[in-house]
Amino acid sequence: MNKKKYSQVNQTLINQERFPFLTEKILQQSFFIAYDRNEKIVSQAKKMSHLFILLTGKARIIQQKPNGKNLILQFLEPGDFIGELTVVKAEETPKDVIAIGSVNCLAIPLSVVEDDLMTGADFPKFIAKYIGEKLLLRMEHFSNAQTFELKYRLAALLIEVAVNEQYSENNTQIADYLGVSYRHLTHTFKFLRENGYIEKNQAGYLIHPTKLRQLINEGNEA
């Protein structure tokens, strides 16, 4: 983890048109934090202290079950928040959020969020809209599980989570996330590999995004 003040980093990473609440006052009280692959951005064992905005890279949200099993709840991409449910008092104990590849975040102290952002009218509306949109995406995820063949859903997920066209996820967790058996997932990976959509390598799979998108389009047209 590499933590820097706003004045010490490339400020072009901030899209103030997308996040109009990020005024100079807010940014001067915030931090840029860089995380390495598989490094925890948030830990379930620690109380949240910041609201994060994912600026570059990807991450996964993991829930640790009492039986020791780790479940993937969601994947995050640039523009996503981490800790928004804590901000609106909907969640006291956070989930683990783990970097997929290198990740850069803007970290806004919760005290700043509560004293400056939540006291105005614009930010609460912004965060409510964001939470609503993520809920709709989650509903779509479950709907697709019932209507689309696994090969199409897996193709979309490979594009979503791959870093530099490299997929290296835990397939036991991915099977749970997609709601299928590990055996079914393995057979689908075999189909994709034998038909030239992906290539097996030491780290997992090298994906071919153009071919995978063609496959997804076939599923949408079927």
UniProtKB/TrEMBL annotation:
InterPro entries: cNMP-bd_dom, cNMP-bd_dom_sf, HTH_CRP, RmlC-like_jellyroll, WH_DNA-bd_sf
Domain of life: Bacteria
GO MF, one example: DNA binding
Residues of the Cyclic nucleotide-binding domain: 35-108
Keywords: DNA-binding, Transcription, Transcription regulation
Protein name per its UniProtKB record: Cyclic nucleotide-binding domain-containing protein
Species whose genome carries this gene: Enterococcus avium
Gene3D superfamilies from the UniProt entry: Jelly Rolls
